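Service request form, structural biology core

Requester: graduate student, group of Dr. S.
Request type: structure prediction, single chain
Budget code: on file
Notes: please return the result as structure tokens.

Sequence provided:
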Amino acid sequence: MSKILIIEDEAAIRRVLVKILTEENDSYQVIEAEDGLSGVELIKKEDYDLVLCDIKMPKMDGVEVLEAVKKIKPEVPIVMISGHGDLDTAVNTMRLGAFDYISKPPDLNRLLNTVRIALDRKELVVENTRLKKKVSKNYEMIGESPAISQIKEMIEKVAPTEARVLITGPNGTGKELVAHWLHQKSDRSKGPMIEVNCAAIPAELIESELFGHVKGAFTSANKDRAGKFEAANGGTIFLDEVGDMSLSAQAKVLRALQENKVQRVGSDKDIKVNVRIVAATNKDLKKEISEGNFREDLYHRLAVILIKVPPLNDRREDIPLLVDYFTNRIASEHGTSQKKFSDKALKLLQEYDWTGNIRELRNVVERLIILGAAEVSENDVKLFASK
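Core staff response, request fulfilled:
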């Protein structure tokens, strides 16, 4: 159930808004506040999915409410309600962080469309915040090899810029981790980071996933839906396995990069977006270009900065550090005491052919912790880490 707060000093307008919203969707729980001050007090005490706020009110006007709410609960979208003479102020509130504004008397379709989009965005922001908290704990760049040190140095230089980055490397090497570090160390770190696995989404759905759709655009489109580009507005969008994207979707991504605009599937309305794109692939995109599977102009747009993540076999000196890191993590997840690996066990692990890279190493470490002795020995490695 979506909880919506209406802050409006005119009782007649409040009644109209409540009627429109509750008739549109009986799952909307609508609460009223007759002035800005009481509205802010309610927001301090309870969580809301959306706030509709008038601009001209006694005690505390809409601009003051907006500024206060952005300090208290910045994730809550606020739609401003403006009279004819308030339009300049309404536009200014967008710069202060308002989601949108609607004019009085409210147009039915405009109001409902704005509310749906704002609620969709709120869901995505909340989910992204949850994932960011998880990511900040779970993602670390482990290693001191020359290759990893070079990547860390590149991230320090590139992250604060707006340059687009293409991350390449085999599966399981940690391309996603590099993308997260780029975002976390960027000026956009307080904004969302939205991930899209282009290989996991069917070709016929990738455009809807990236750019959203309008109601009726296709058979299962029973309501308007914001896409990942809109959700990433003000932050970063990570296009993982971008080499698997259809040519049609590539053309639209290229337009988004060139014009900072997207169009939802089934709509011809432009939506402005402000996102930084970080992409990753395990494919040789130059080969894909020569075979007609990837657009050369998109490649050059994405690969302003190229970061190559090496396979684990090329950074074997990092394996003891990675084993120690995974041992700590796995022991914590299983609620068991941490096991130690003998020097001979570590040496043998360094000699293995890690075709599955870091992902494979993590699985082997977990297996050894579960099946090995109190101190994981060389013999344990031979028994349980065999291919």
